[in-house]
Amino acid sequence: MTKQPMPKQRGVRGSRTGRPIMALLDLLGRRWSLRILWELREAPLTSRGLRAACDEASPTVLQTRLDELREAGFVELGEASGYALTPLGRELCETFMPLHRFAERWRK
Amino acid sequence: MTKQPMPKQRGVRGSRTGRPIMALLDLLGRRWSLRILWELREAPLTSRGLRAACDEASPTVLQTRLDELREAGFVELGEASGYALTPLGRELCETFMPLHRFAERWRK
DNA sequence: CTCTTTGCTACAATTATCGTAGCAATACGC
DNA sequence: GCGTATTGCTACGATAATTGTAGCAAAGAG
Questions:
Q1: What is the pTM assigned to this prediction?
Q2: Each residue's pLDDT tens digit, B11-53
Q3: Which residues of A touch B55 (CB under 8 A)?
Q4: Does A95 contact B100 at a Cβ distance shorter than 8 Å?
């Protein structure tokens, strides 16, 4: 019995478990995912504007995250205004918007 | 003017920006952070129980995350019951609890 | 045409994460 | 006592993700 080629893990980890929350937690748990959603919360941003907003994160990861978030249906690339939240993405964003107030109280 | 020794970035990225939300998003955006909080949402777990709940993630990362989450004040290590959410951690957890319902509707 | 901005990619270097094994400490039953 | 099982935690090399810098082609403005 040889090792199977294993079709090279793609997409979101945990999406096979049948528990969507796990897939979602995994996707949001990747670096810059939450930040990207956060920065898009108010207005669309161009790829470069988004990079500036994200403290000059490397375009490689940002591109990867944007692709994932687009595939997930949270983000879309508009004609002129750049990247923007979809209605679904906006909904998701509002879901963890209370984090803002929590963070203020947290403060470390 | 020589380059300052730069006290070697420790703790949470973005905590210097004065925007706690950035620090929080960074901390929660590390792998297994959200998952750990999620798995502790109902009952405390031992380190090994937590590992089992987290799909056998490597103990190295889990330990790192647990240390970070403890330092952040979200998790504590009890005498007998293992790892548990602090009141603050429970509050944080409830903040993104609506994600569950959202994920169900999302489904991919 | 030139100049700028767009979304996006190549590439090597650095980190983070994984997976396995194992430690010391504590608590059990015997 | 003795073995054994569980706890929190760590070492280590291998693998994958992320970084930082540079640059591309396409589209638009002047």
A1: 0.86
A2: 565 544 568 899 999 999 999 999 999 999 999 999 999 999 9
A3: 14
A4: no
